[in-house]
Specification:
Layout (H helix, E strand, L loop, with lengths): L8 H17 L14 H14 L11 E2 L8 H13 L10 H17 L7 E5 L2 H15 L4 E5 L5 H9 L3 E4 L9 H8 L4 E7 L11 H11 L2 E6 L6 H7 L2 H8 L6 E4 L1 H4 L7 E5 L35 H13 L8 H20 L3 E3 L7 E6 L4 H15 L9 E7 L1 H6 L11 E7 L5 H20 L1
Parallel strand pairs: 1-11, 3-4, 3-5, 5-6, 6-7
Antiparallel strand pairs: 2-8, 7-8, 9-10, 10-12, 11-12
Helix pairs in contact: 1-3, 3-12, 4-12, 5-6, 7-8, 9-10, 13-16, 14-16
The structure holds pyridoxal-5'-phosphate (PLP).
């Protein structure tokens, strides 16, 4: 096997642009219309202005950015996306995307196998986790129009918003001190006989908590409810669950195969740019709900076009190509993409241990994946809010090389006491700190981040 090295993005980009230009030229020359011609140097000026303006961003690619769910796509995804975008296929129909529809089928099979789904399933890529979840909730409503949808109070707000869009009633189930859905709370609701579908989240957006899916499935079977799993954030952790997550967490990841539908976002832990979600359904008969008839779509081939089984119409073939190429380099195995996730998980567990020994900081709860929440050791909620905010602001200032970027997370008094923090309730809410450690480089960066935050926290606490 060839040596691994830092990739030269510009070389990869040159390679694909040249190849696509050659491919285009093979169809014969034609004159570009004058209306779309422009002055090369003017375009270059505009692009210069663009890249200047793009300096106004946070360094999402850098391990000093330990804030929200943001990181750069992998160079293989960038080059593949760019190459395909020049042609701009539309995975709505096979005729608009013969090559990339095939790639999409391949990546869907790989992802379905990761979840241990049956070989026959219905699924497709989507623009985002939101559209993927909307689709799963829409099918939930079509199957059981008069029933409610239950999710935990920590589920992504997309579920309550999309329930509103769909005109379904949603029920919010409380969470336990570990951020997971309360099974008792769920059963209390199920007993009323009104829940049609339970949404379990594997990796909540705020805390990275994993709902107890294996137990939720048992309850769902007992009360005749369906189960939809939102793994938009956490889905790819399935690759490392057995050997690198807590046994209890792994038990719930192992239950994914029992779910009626699953959503995952390759633009989160799949090294992809935005515009990349996916939804899977176990029961292929739900395809009937997608039936549509329109005089302007063109389905020449008899094979199934993605446009026949998705809510969206146009969808970038480039997204499918980017995932396809990425999974050639990082297959969905523990040694493949899993090797990118293991260090993110190690970063979170190592930092958690440092925080337990820290004099100025403390963990909010034990991380289940790679999202860590923590707070200064203070006595009141107002002080907590103030110090957290100052840490966020002050660490993000100054010369670029010294900046550290963190996020905050809003908590209520009951959430603090649920986790045994003793604090004067002199404010209704308070901000704590939150770091999504989704870059493998965070593995070695954590001591540095911890030191800088600790030092400033001690000063601010006084
Ligand atoms: C990010 C996320 C979503 C929303 O997905 P988008 O791709 O941002 O639309 C939904 N659920 C969970 C758990 C998420 O982490």
């Amino acid at each position: 096997m060839a040596d691994k090295s830092d990739l030269q993005l510009s070389e990869l980009v040159q390679q694909v642009v040249a190849a696509i230009e050659t491919d285009k030229a093979s169809y014969g020359e034609f004159q570009t219309h004058p209306s779309v011609k422009s002055d090369q140097s003017r375009v270059s000026e505009v692009l210069k202005e663009l890249t200047d303006r793009l300096e106004n961003n946070f360094p999402y690619f850098h391990p000093n950015y330990a804030a929200q769910m943001l990181k750069s796509p992998h160079p293989v995804a960038i080059a593949a996306y760019l190459a395909t975008m020049i042609i701009n296929p539309n995975n709505h129909s096979i005729d608009a995307s013969p090559a990339t529809t095939q790639m999409e089928r391949e990546v869907l099979r790989q992802m379905a196998a990761m979840f241990e789904y049956p070989e026959e399933f219905l699924g497709h890529l989507t623009w985002s986790g939101t559209t993927a979840n909307l689709e799963a909730l829409w099918i939930a409503r079509e199957l059981q129009p008069n029933k409610k949808i239950a999710h935990s109070s920590d589920a992504h707000y997309t579920h309550s918003r999309m329930s509103e869009v769909l005109g379904t009633t949603n029920v919010s189930i409380p969470t336990e001190a570990d951020g997971r859905m309360s099974l008792q709370g769920l059963e209390d609701e199920l007993k009323k006989g009104e829940i049609g579908t339970i949404v379990a989240t594997m990796g909540t957006t705020g805390l990275g908590a994993v709902d107890p899916l294996a137990d939720i499935i048992v309850l769902a079977q007992k009360y005749g409810a369906r189960v939809h799993v939102d793994t938009a954030y956490g889905g790819f952790f399935k690759l490392i669950a057995e050997n690198h997550l807590a046994p209890e967490t792994a038990r719930h990841f192992a239950a994914l195969k029992e779910a009626d539908s699953i959503v995952v976002d390759p633009h989160k832990h799949g090294l992809q740019p935005y515009g990349s979600g996916a939804v899977f359904f176990k029961d292929i008969s739900i395809g009937k709900f997608y039936k549509h008839d329109s005089p302007y779509t063109y389905f020449i081939s008899d094979d199934l076009h993605f446009g026949e089984i998705q809510l969206e119409c146009s969808r970038a073939g480039a997204s499918a190509a980017a995932i396809w190429a990425t999974l050639q380099i990082f297959p969905l195995t523990e040694q493949g993409l899993g090797s990118v996730l293991i260090p993110t998980r190690t970063a979170a567990t190592n930092w958690y241990e440092l925080l337990q020994q820290s004099e100025s900081l403390q963990p909010y709860q034990k991380p289940e994946l790679d999202i860590l929440t923590y707070l200064p050791r203070v006595q009141s909620m107002s002080k907590l809010d103030h110090v957290s905010h100052e840490l966020l602001v002050q660490l993000g200032q100054g010369p670029r090389e010294g900046q550290i970027h963190l996020a905050t997370y809003v908590v209520k008094p009951n959430q603090l006491s649920q986790r045994d923090f003793q604090m004067a309730e002199d404010a209704k809410t308070a901000r704590i700190l939150r770091s999504v450690l989704m870059k493998p480089e965070h593995e070695t960066w954590v001591p540095h981040l911890n030191q800088r935050i600790e030092d400033l926290a001690s000063k601010l606490i006084g």
